[in-house]
Amino acid sequence: MAVCVLCRRVPRLHHFLRKDSTLTQVLRVIVQDTDDVKRTKGELQQWEPFLPAQYRPYYNPSSYYSVCHFTSSCNQAENDEDVCLSTLTPSLWQQGNHYIVSCSRYLSTSSNRLLELPFNKDSEPPLPSDSLINGNLIPQNVKVDSRAFQRCRREYASITLDLKQLPHPVEWHKVVPLLEKVDLFKDKKKPSVISQLFVELSHLQPNMMSLLRFDQRFIRLLQYSVEHLGLFTNHQVLRVLRSLVWLDLPSDHGVFGLYEAELCCRVDHMSLHQLLLAADLCRCIGMQVPQFLQSLYPAIRLYLGKMNVSELVQLLYIMGEGRWCPEDLRGPVEDLLMNHLDKLYPEEVGTVCLGLFKSQTPISDHAVTCIVQKACSYVGDMSDFAIANILKYMRFSHVYHEMWLENMAQEVPRRAPGMGIKGLMHVALACSSLHFKNDQILLAIAERVPFLAQQCRSKDSSKMLWAFGTLGFLPVQNPSFYPSLIEALRQRKVEFQKYPQHLLSGLLGLIFVSQFPEDLIALALNPDFVRVALKSSHLDLRKDYLTLDEAVALELPQWTGPRLSCKLREEVAEKLWIYAKSDVCLKPEVREAESLLQDLLGGEEFVCKRMILPHTRTIDLEVHLDASGQPIPVNPASNTDIKSLQERPSKVHFRQEWNGMNVGVTLTDELFARLTTRNATKTFSSPVQHAHVPTLDPDEGGSQIKTRLSHSNEKETVTRSICLDSAHQDSKSPVKLAIQVSNRNHYLYHSQQLLGLHSMKRRHLKLAGYRVVELCYWEWFPLLRESKMKKLEYLHRKIYDSLH
Prior knowledge:
The chain is mostly helical and 804 residues long.
């Protein structure tokens, strides 16, 4: 039960100390059960004489506070990396990908800079202490020590606190005389005596700490410390903070706010070691200290030129745990890191990468490459935790290091049986972000995950599903992998009310590989759940919802469950198209393809640039052929027949908006061959006499193609009719082609296998009745430098081949 003293936010401590005014402080008293209510009221009454009348305590017996021990809170904070770049924030690679509408969920990151410290994150429901799978007892998770780097060098002893070296424990009866001293020096409360008492009390046995925290004499000692805090030396302040770590006060205890204010006042008078130690002690306590960090970094800048390796690594660790690195420090820190790179030990390399990753600090590609290259030299000596940290920063920077990934293909299968679920998740997520698919890595992870699935947080399951779905890992490759994670999601349904993005991430990864758990889909599309998910002020889940909803409509025709409202679908699709028109549609390779197709087919009315399937977030060049093989306008709103079009071509106007178009036109290789060789042997009358292939300038090969193709309109339409009529003589419905200008970010690295979203798009286009014609980036991009004739020949060949 928690009893809080509510008061107005006070200025910094030194204002009160210098003016000798009454100190008002928020001190929270923690009790463990409802039987202590009366005693708690009595404890509160003793504070009232020290508070002004308007600041009387507010007692609420219905409020509860959960006591968190520093060891568990630190481990949770250190192990809980919650900066998901591949599925939340747009990565550097994604920001440069102009061929897919951004699927970033974050609306703003400005609020994350200082306030999203790891020790204040909303914790997810606790996992069971152990799991029983197939009769085997599985430990909850593999523990990692994120502060192991601090034992690499002796120099860390002066700037950090080693949490492994606990004070020598003493019994309660030895502490009682110390507490009695608190009342003996009422008017002789010297800072040296107070700090020494804290040090001696911190040696109490850990299991007796809760008894000490509720002792009235200890509470008075806390009061004396804050009243005289301005008289403490820097060394005494740090001694008290170190003692408070062992005393295990809750990180949100009111006394810590005053200590932070005092530290802010002292930054200009503290040495580099004292500054780093103060920041590390705050980290160990679990304090949120955004104001102190804002004051710390300008003071640190004065020492950058004199920093040694341990000081630099500790600084990067503090930056990572504070989730912020000032822009003016990024350049100097990178330079200093490059100077000390050869001196780093394996665990220090992992800490450097983790600090850069958590603080979202970009450095040059060259610097990242050098760091990863250094890690390659002793990858076998690195811990699993350090390896995962390097992969995290590669995921953030999107620097592809082939040697490192080759090492991972050897190391991950060897280490996977002993890795925890978080480490496996980060390996998979890094592979998907780098578009790197290695079957050895994925199979090793897939074999391990079913044994740990019951221990997965919703975040672990969802990111694992997203990663494997993006990489196109098929269910047949490991039949138990996807079912185990799906079941893990079902067991975590309660978490989705707080973290709806996890459910959507997992479901999207599943639909990439055609897996549709209908109960989870029904939960995600439930109107009440949708309202909860869309209320988020910093996440935009609407695009993810559109992708899920339309995938269900196409691949589950029997679906009778909930769907998104038409209004929401239209709003999201419209916004996606607005973005595409201002970005993707303007790319040179897309505009060149559109222009040449218009020339090849006979006019702009035969080519429509639009998002055929908005939920796939990419555009297509849509062309159609009618039942007789003739190109028809891509405009369903027009009732004008083809004959009237050739009579009044200038009067027909075709809209280019995506949301009303379902028409298009294509050509064939054989047609172009017949056009260029003039080997037509049979003639047919054709109504499309206005279609023509434009002439080219001599420097573009126009003299050749002009000789071959500048015949009468009758000859052109006759040969076109021959090819198309023979290809579709048995077809009565129009042929719809979706011509795609692909990009390397649509594919796995050094592979022609599509990523999950784009593989799903191909599947959905076929379900929607389209034939896909791809202008492969490895073919089309080099052609952009060639003559117009070569490009026309290429387009003609691609279209013709698609008709067979």
